[in-house]
Write a structure and sequence with these properties.
By secondary structure, this protein is α/β, with parallel strands linked by helices. The chain has 13 helices and 15 strands. The chain has one domain: Rossmann fold (3-Layer(aba) Sandwich). Helix 1 packs across helix 10. The structure holds uridine-diphosphate-N-acetylglucosamine.
């Protein structure tokens, strides 16, 4: 374990960043959070700022695209480690706002590289919140069980209800757990920007004494995820819709699979990465290691909130850039960080449901 005394978190008021900040602070680290408090995410929520302040975390309001403000913040706070979590995160939304997504995620990361070079002489580690979305459809096998690359799904296939991942000749493939051995093949603008973040950081600090670590996160969920952001994670969207008495719209045929990993487990992975005696230079995949269909997750949330599990519409709609299945192979995280997830999906869904019920009561 290395001892860190000063940490800087971009996106430090976000869902993951704010919990990471409090966790590091409790471990005795001086933490500064740099966040632009994007209204789409933070509107109607004053809790995060209070929680961070109560914990003794410094909150700096600023945007990663504002190089001068970022530079001032880094030079003043003198961090040894920078956690880079500031990002636009919506797969579907990135299709509508390619400039905004590229600007924040890619250019923001490039600014961070230049700022650390010029104004962060103490920085020795940068840890990126990467995304499993960079794999696109991820690892798949053919009918003979051979690993075979999946190509991007085609709108014409999706429109006629053929949702399965396919190889380049159109043969249907079966998904398997994905790890960093898999070729990257981002399927959305969001995913492309997340891959660029990895590359800009690695290439930007190449040959320097700053180590770069990347955690490729699966779908992070849990209490505290924005209930007001219409582009937030699907489970929070479903909780809000359940509270509002709405029917849950499930895209495609409901059999899309995601690996949902609880935010507390993800925070533990970031802490383990930052404190590792030697930070893994290879990408580390972080997920539960198990998939659940969106249909089953929706039903479980309805039941957890005491509602009719049939209040569901399977729409056949599909989003540009969506991928079909995602399940992480966590082996490297276990081997290099001694990390494994602690909270199983139904326990986590129950805690999300309980929190959203309480949140709704307070906001009502
Ligand atoms: C999510 C994260 C992204 C992360 C990635 C890693 C969010 C907003 N995005 O993307 O930051 O890098 O995981 O895998 O958390 N769906 C419905 N009905 C809805 C909304 C969504 O069926 O009303 C479906 C979508 O089609 C999708 C699935 O739910 O297949 C998950 O969608 P979403 O929560 O937006 O996450 P990802 O796109 O997987």
């Amino acid at each position: 374990m290395v001892e860190i005394t000063r940490a800087f978190i971009t996106g430090g008021a976000g869902f993951i960043g704010s919990r990471l900040a409090v966790s590091l602070k409790k471990a005795g680290v001086d933490v500064s959070c740099y966040d632009n408090f994007l209204p789409q995410v933070h509107l109607g929520n004053t809790d995060t700022r209070r929680i961070l302040k109560d914990a003794g975390v410094e909150v700096i309001v600023g945007d990663v695209r504002d190089a001068d403000a970022l530079s001032l913040a880094v030079s003043r706070t003198k961090p040894q480690i920078v956690y880079h979590l500031a990002a636009e995160t919506g797969t579907g939304q990135s299709h509508d706002f390619p400039v905004r997504y590229t600007d924040v995620n890619v250019l923001g990361t490039a600014h961070l590289v230049e700022v650390i070079r010029k104004a962060g002489p103490d920085v020795r580690r940068v840890v990126l919140a990467g995304s499993r979305s960079v794999y696109g459809e991820g690892a798949c096998v053919d009918q003979a069980g051979q690993l075979t690359p999946a190509v991007e799904r085609l709108p014409k296939d999706l429109a006629r209800g053929d949702y399965a991942p396919k190889d380049k000749d159109g043969a249907t493939l079966l998904p398997v757990k994905t790890n960093a051995e898999c070729v990257v093949r981002p399927a959305s603008i969001y995913a492309s920007t997340k891959l660029m973040q990895e590359r800009v950081l690695r290439q930007g600090f190449w040959g320097s004494d700053v180590d770069v670590g990347v955690l490729r996160l699966q779908n992070v969920y849990g209490p505290g995820q924005s209930m007001n952001n219409p582009y937030t994670g699907v489970l929070s969207i479903f909780c809000r819709q359940i509270m509002e008495g709405k029917t849950l719209n499930i895209f495609e045929d409901g059999q899309i699979t995601r690996d949902f990993v609880l935010v507390d487990d993800v925070v533990a992975a970031f802490v383990a990465m930052g404190c590792a005696a030697s930070m893994p230079s290879d990408v580390v995949d972080i997920g539960l290691g198990q998939g659940i269909t969106i249909l089953d997750a929706a039903r479980a949330l309805l039941v957890a909130l005491g509602q009719d599990p049939g209040r569901i519409a399977i729409t056949g709609n599909f989003r540009p850039g969506d991928i079909r299945h995602a399940i992480a192979d966590n082996t490297r995280a276990a081997n290099t960080l001694g990390w494994s997830p602690k909270v199983q999906i139904h326990q986590g869904l129950q805690s999300l449901a309980d929190w959203s019920r309480a949140y709704n009561r307070v906001m009502a």
